[in-house]
Design a protein that fits this description.
alpha/beta; eight-stranded parallel beta barrel; binds dihydroflavine-adenine dinucleotide
Length: 282
């Protein structure tokens, strides 16, 4: 295993579906649910996109066979959205249909701003036939308040995150404080809305005030959950689960881990320094 692959293992369950199953079993034993991500994005051919969707059908089989407490998270650029949105709808539709038969929820991850609207449009197209599909909204984007107001009214299940893609200041808040302030504002709008609220963050500065708002609003447990990434703030994941909150961990696996790993590295300068130290044998 190369040094980079070794370092990436901190954030991914492994390269095979079996690795993901083993990681989910460990989480489920701690009363923590999972959402599975088969790593990869921006595929260039329909054949690749078809193989990507097939991999998700295998994940669904594994969820059924091993009786895992898990759902799936899907990136539409991996399903061919940039090649042809209609093809993507058909291709990802195979996952959505199978998940529907199994009663499994499908989360559509949010990628960079060039595909935000297209991702929302396809999610709404799926929701015409199937309500167990939800979306992700990024607090860093200036447009997100408007999106959240609509989604909260429509009762869509939303995962709220800060946003992991580099975006221009014209469309995204450049300052972290503004992203954080917007995160709390958007979380409150979702809590006051109709759909399930999935709060994806490891930041206690977000968690504490939102927890207080949830208590004040007497939001029933089934209307919200906390979500975190595999390998990050494990103690906090356990702490929230032990307090009786619903907690779900995003479990990525697969060989195409570079894009995901790079985003995790860029989020925190300590990660970058840690990797550099290993590279240069420090
Ligand atoms: P913040 O970055 O401020 O970090 C708060 C604390 O968390 C840090 O101080 C540190 O302790 C810990 N931490 C955070 N990131 C870390 C890292 N990489 N390594 C080590 N420690 C770290 N984004 C997106 O654009 N589209 C999406 O679909 C998703 N999906 C998604 C699902 C789930 C379940 C989660 C938790 C996150 C996402 N994200 C995402 C990523 C998200 O946008 C964001 O980049 C990360 O969650 C980091 O933001 P925090 O809210 O944790 O805050």
């Amino acid at each position: 295993m190369g040094i980079l692959a070794f370092l990436a293992r901190r954030f991914i369950a492994g390269e095979g579906l079996d690795d993901a199953v083993a990681a989910i079993r460990q989480l489920n034993a701690l009363n923590i649910s999972a959402t599975v991500d088969n790593l990869g994005e921006n595929v260039k051919t329909k054949e690749e996109a078809t193989r990507s969707a097939d991999a998700y059908l295998d994940i669904l089989d594994a969820i059924g066979t091993h009786k895992l407490d898990a759902n799936v998270s899907v990136k539409l650029t991996m399903m061919g959205m940039e090649i042809d949105p209609d093809f993507c709808y058909e291709n990802a539709g195979r996952i959505v249909n199978k998940a529907k038969d199994m009663g499994v929820f499908v989360r559509i991850d949010m990628e960079g701003s060039p595909v935000t609207q297209l991702t929302l449009d396809l999610m709404r197209r799926f929701r015409k036939d199937y309500d167990q599909v939800g979306i992700v909204i990024q607090a860093m984007l200036r447009r997100s308040e408007e999106d959240i107001r609509l989604l909260a009214e429509e009762g869509v299940n939303v995962r709220l995150c800060k946003g992991a893609y580099k975006e221009p200041d014209s469309i995204a808040f450049p300052k972290k404080e503004d992203v954080n302030e917007n995160y709390i504002k958007l979380a409150k709008l979702l809590i006051d809305g109709q759909g399930k609220v999935c709060l994806a963050t490891h930041d206690r500065k977000m968690i504490e005030p939102i927890k207080a708002y949830i208590e004040e609003a007497k939001l029933p447990k089934e209307r919200y959950e906390w979500q975190m990434l595999y390998g990050i703030e494990r103690d906090l994941q356990k702490e929230l689960a032990n307090q009786g909150h619903n907690v779900r961990v995003y479990v990525p696996y697969g060989s195409d881990w570079l894009g995901y790993y790079t985003r995790r590295m860029m989020e925190r300068k300590e990660n970058f320094l840690f990797a550099m130290k290993h590279f240069f044998g420090g």
